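Incident log, structure service

09:12 report received: a user says their structure output differs between two submissions of the same chain.
09:20 pulled the input from the user's history:
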Amino acid sequence: MIARVFSAVNVGYDGNLVEVECDVNKGLPRLNIVGLADKAVNESKERVRGALVNSHMKFPDGHVTVNLAPANMPKDGTHFDLPIAVGLMVVSGQLLLKAVKNTLFAGELSLDGELRPVTGILAIAETARKNNIDTVIVPSENAEQAALVKDVTVIGAKTLIDVLLHLIGEKIIEPTLSPDLAKSVPKRGNHPSISEIRGQESAKRALVIAAAGHHNILFTGPPGAGKTMLARALTGLLPAPTYDELFEITKIHSISGNTAEVIRQRPFRSPHHTASFVAIIGGGTKAQPGEVSLAHHGVLFLDEIPEYPRQSLEALRQPLEDREVHISRAGARVTYPANFMLVATKNPCPCGFYGDDSRECECSQQQILAYQKRISGPLMDRIDMVVEVSRVPQDELLKTAESDAGEEEKLRTEIAKARDTQMLRNKNRANSSLSNKQIIAKAKLTPNAEWLLTTAAERLKLSARSYFKIIKVARTIADLNGNDAITEAEISEALQYRQQ
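09:34 re-ran on a clean worker, output below:
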């Protein structure tokens, strides 16, 4: 008798169904695994043998062959331990084949039979739903994540014995309920509140616009002016993510190694400027997601952006435009989502004081030009808003105001209201994510606003991309102001953020 047990393998952002076929024939006791299995899967035979024996179960006698079908698809990961063990229990007569029907298994086994969590469990559970498999048995630590997938019954087991007893009906494990994400609220952590920032009213206004429309923003100014503090205060302003957004965020983090936690807030990724190209964009031998994907539906913060390698910065151009990143390697070609909000800071020159009133710049004109050219024109063209941040007078730094306490909550409410307006009008898309055709249909410019935009585009020699980005930013400003149409004042404010 051949036992067939369902499992899955992660291929980039998605999963593919795998049939684990087990067969026992006469011959010397041996376990062979075939079907393009990598080293981690081949090593599972020793873990499975130890888990079965130490759980007081029978290991099949004879020549055992395990085939992972389809055989032409590469298989990796330790999550095949559990389906292989279940298949061996079926062929050895400890389980009936009908007990594992319409059930998908995934989990790593320890030598004593304990189930350990694995990565990519959300993609595995999604594969079960897509293939009309109604039950998924996973390690208990993975159960909460897997339960995010609707229309699938998730069973979280702690040991191999628990799995056996559940399948034969002696000790039924209660299904894991889907976690309640309705109470998910933005978490600031160690990040400052916008109410802690003294002065910088124009920069705060720009930050609110960027948060409301999911616009990319660059803060430029001298050291100590508050650029980094402004960027980090963004976490307290972003609206709470939807269920679908939290699902996608958790899924990408599950693939990258987060085996248990359900992400309940938007990510804020801040890679160091020494991070490699692969770390930021993604890749490697197994084409893993990079920082641009881990920041999906959140923020990618690049502090002092000119210090990052030119190759990494130029690679941001495609994900900023397409909201996804394509990774092509000799052994893999995958696509990961990368709908992030880019927030960056930079000094105006190497010493940082070019244009500062309080301190003289020590850089030569050549040094200043070379420093500013580290960010290419095409990349700058993809940044919606550029904001100059000036040094705050020292007497302003010590001022406090009682009204500041509720400033963040008030701004967050305004941003959430503007975002809800966009979601309703744009069919669940932020203004920055609209195509040129879509923004033309949704913009509704007044005649004066259209004249001002056309005149400014001609005088400033704006590119087509810049032209439409101004409309998108103006549309967000109009949403914050509660206006149905974009007026001349909103186009004028949006133009201020395009001048470099």
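09:41 both user submissions now match this output. Likely a transient worker issue. Closing.
09:42 reviewer note: The two ends are 72 Å apart (CA to CA). The longest helix spans residues 407-426.
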